[in-house]
């Protein structure tokens, strides 16, 4: 392994400054544990001077033993014209009892005079005093030089003086922050290089993504000598976000030979991203490099033909290295090779010239003509193949379902669903209420099946999309329902088509459940072998 790069994850601090994000104490603990498992060096998990929740989190964490990660509390320098010992923020940071503190301070002269409204000299003292205070308490101290690059461009002597003030206070790391996110990689490279050459202290980089340059900027800082990379795991943060650490880690470790996380944990890069998104309750950007669901999804027939012959023809890395997987998308632009990759997963002896391949292509086209679209619903297509090849056995038999919708005329609608199924000769009937008919149906079906297949409790719907296919026939139009499901680890999509939206949803729901149960059986068989 090459040079060690300390990964500093701020999902729980800068990430919590993103629009739409709010973590509970439990959420924070889950994310810290996941990042610790990966071997992330520092997790900046909150700002104890900001709110009581963060303080409570740090109190809970006193009992937690981390294997690889140093828990870090974040806060500002002391306020102007106060004693460091009497500063409320400094006191809160002490109460957090973390081995590491990250202290941010101003390094752009204009911010000193116009935002915190003090003198340039007092700001230098604020930085030095605060850092010296935490060093005297035995902490590892990181100085986040806020707006360092803008500050350097406006007044290089003063920006460097703020770093020297931190150094005089005994700081362990100088982190150069690209706070407004508008800088270019060449600027980042030359300024970081200058700092690395002038100061003997270890240097880190903290980039925001306002110009879409955060990954390039972070990599250039590392090329210039930075050995700590700050960011958030899947890139959410203030405004357009922070640098996406999952991209940075993969680029540095797989392409540049640096050691960012534990070598054996690289295969968990993707599942950790899913976990962070789940806990943060956001839909992940599926086009994200390395970890997105589309990162290794091939659609053009020629691309699919290429990867099926030699994967490196259209893939920059083997997706398994980051725990992701190749996906082959079915569509009108696919050929036999496309369908074959799917078929061979179920029956490897079938080839391009086998009659089953042609029959399945014909079936694909027939279903597409009926309104199905498999590009985003490979799981349903896998079930079509299984049914066609005789590799399918239903997990239950539907006796009936009934749905009752109530409209109370005051903007309040409720729905209840009754489902009766039979599994291996045993009937089960359940009733559930939901926010709408599909929600009620989903709940009732899961409840009924839960008796026989408890693992379905892990599954929930992540997305539900309806598309009207033939608008000319108005309310008699066909609809296509796409359901995206997850068990917290994997993501799969199923599709149903009908003139009845409930029926289309039912078909997609049943496929989702059957697909999960098939995958569980396959997993067990693999473990047994
Ligand atoms: C670049 C960054 O991301 S830095 C981190 C930014 N993160 C956050 O702001 C989230 C957490 N913040 C908070 O919870 C609140 O802002 C608090 C509790 C910290 C402060 O709240 P308040 O005291 O009500 O102040 P408010 O938020 O309105 O204004 C910020 C204050 O901090 C001061 N301040 C800003 N940066 C610094 C700094 N580097 N050093 C010292 N003081 C600073 C400002 O001058 C302002 O003080 P003033 O009210 O005396 O003018
Ligand atoms: C410290 C920090 O979050 C920033 O400068 O962007």
From TrEMBL:
Xref: SUPFAM superfamilies: 2-isopropylmalate synthase LeuA, allosteric (dimerisation) domain (SSF110921), Aldolase (SSF51569)
Domain Pyruvate carboxyltransferase: 5-267
Domain of life: Bacteria
Gene Ontology molecular-function annotations: (R)-citramalate synthase activity; 2-isopropylmalate synthase activity
Xref: Pfam families: HCS_D2 (PF22617), HMGL-like (PF00682), LeuA_dimer (PF08502)
Signal peptide range in chain numbering: none
EC top class named in words: transferase
Catalysed transformations (reactions): pyruvate + acetyl-CoA + H2O = (3R)-citramalate + CoA + H(+)
Pathway of action: Amino-acid biosynthesis; L-isoleucine biosynthesis; 2-oxobutanoate from pyruvate: step 1/3
Keywords: Amino-acid biosynthesis, Branched-chain amino acid biosynthesis, Isoleucine biosynthesis, Transferase
Keyword set includes Amino-acid biosynthesis: yes
EC number assigned by the record: 2.3.3.21
Protein family (similarity comment): Belongs to the alpha-IPM synthase/homocitrate synthase family.
Designated name of the protein: Citramalate synthase
UniProt source species: Anaerovirgula multivorans
